[in-house]
Amino acid sequence: MKFSTLSTLSLVYATTVAATPSFSQRAACSKGRTASSATCCVWYNVLDDLQANLFEHQCGDDAHDALRLSFHDAIGYSPKLKSQGQFGGGGADGSLIKFGAIELEYPSNEGLESIVMAEKDLADKYGVSYGDIIQFAGVVSVRNCLFGPRIAFMAGRPSATQAAPDGLVPAPFDNVTTILARVEDAGLTPEEIIDLLASHSIAFQEHVDPTIPGTPFDLTPAIFDNNFYRDVLLPGSVVPGSGLHTGEVKSPFPHEFRLQSDFALARDSRTSGHWLALGLNQHLMVSRFATAMAKMALLGQNSGILHDCSEVIP
Ligand code: HEM
Ligand SMILES: *[C@@H]1O[C@H](CO)[C@@H](O)[C@H](O)[C@H]1NC(C)=O
Q1: Which of 65, 68, 265 has the most ligand 1 atoms within 8 A of CB, as the residue to mutate?
Q2: How many helices (H) and strands (E) does the chain have?
Q3: Which contiguous run of DSSP H or E holds residue 154?
């Protein structure tokens, strides 16, 4: 009797050990890939679909739009409005997809309709949250651009509860005081918004001057280089397209576009030192951007309930 109880116990013990080997606890995902947690496996499937069918493995239009969307969703977060008794937005919560019918009407979100629809379909197909898909696609987009860094990706954002209010996304005609106050309200330092503007190294304008869609902010919009910071410091002499528009200033080259906000941030004493530092140091730009993006992706979110799926990022 005693012997049989013991052998049952040891059988249970042996089974438990076999199911959770002490070495290599990685979960098996699709195509022979593995992840530290099975909950990350779905992101490999999202990655394959996103890269093949939306980005086409390029640092092109859709990748640029996905990166811009990651900012517009995350910056929709204002503790200041909350302290005044209003809803201040949920930050990187996917509200721009879930409440797209409202937020896509905001002037700042012009041009984001098609990327919002495409990411909504992907999220629905794989059963991931809208907040997650937006930050995931932003991180993946950067990897398609030459020299684009790997950025941490955390998964598990809950569904947005309300639309972010209008007026939280900085506009290119805002002055530096307004821009810095807005991003500081959301939780970003002046240096961090300068770090994040490395994104304008892989960016086009389409709606500031609609007569010249696709005019880039530096001459190498598929390369994540720091030429952008240096170009913005050059004297501006030409007006590309059909005259100067609200939020636009003169550019150094006929096929380059300069935003008034970039011009002002590059020259304001609160931010010009850091702007120049990034313009002189590609490695600093890349590493600071990766850190600031990871922070931006958590605005308004409780990082304690998220899990790290960075290993999925190519
Ligand atoms: C002071 C803050 C910022 C202002 C005022 C600003 C403004 C703008 C404007 C006006 C455009 C052109 C949009 C169009 O014509 O369609 C643009 C494009 C873009 N922005 Fe920003 N931006 C800011 C910060 C950021 C940040 C933090 C990110 C990402 C982390 C970002 C990513 C992009 C990208 C990727 C594009 C190109 C979109 C495309 O090629 O279609 N921007 N931005
Ligand atoms: C910046 O813009 C805000 C809002 O339009 C305005 O109230 C403020 O006076 C401006 N500040 C400067 C320094 O121009």
Answers
A1: 68
A2: 14, 8
A3: strand 154-155
H-run or E-run covering 249: strand 248-249
Does the pLDDT of residue 44 top 90, yes or no?
yes
CA 163 to chain centroid, in Å, comes to: 19
Nearest CA to 92 out of 137, 122, 48, 52 is that of: 137
pTM given for the model:
0.93
Ligand 1 atom at minimal distance to the Cα of residue 170: 5
Tens digits of per-residue pLDDT, 78-128? 999 999 999 999 999 999 999 999 999 999 999 999 999 999 999 999 999
> Which atom belonging to ligand 2 lies closest to the Cα atom of 176?
1
Which residues form ligand 2's pocket by a CB distance below 6 Å? 175, 177-178
Nearby residues of 217 by Cβ (< 8 Å), 6 or more positions away? 200, 201, 203, 204, 205, 228, 231, 232, 256, 257, 258, 259, 262
Cβ pair 223, 144 in contact under 8 A: no
Q: Where are the alpha helices (DSSP H) in 257-311?
A: 260-267, 272-280, 282-296
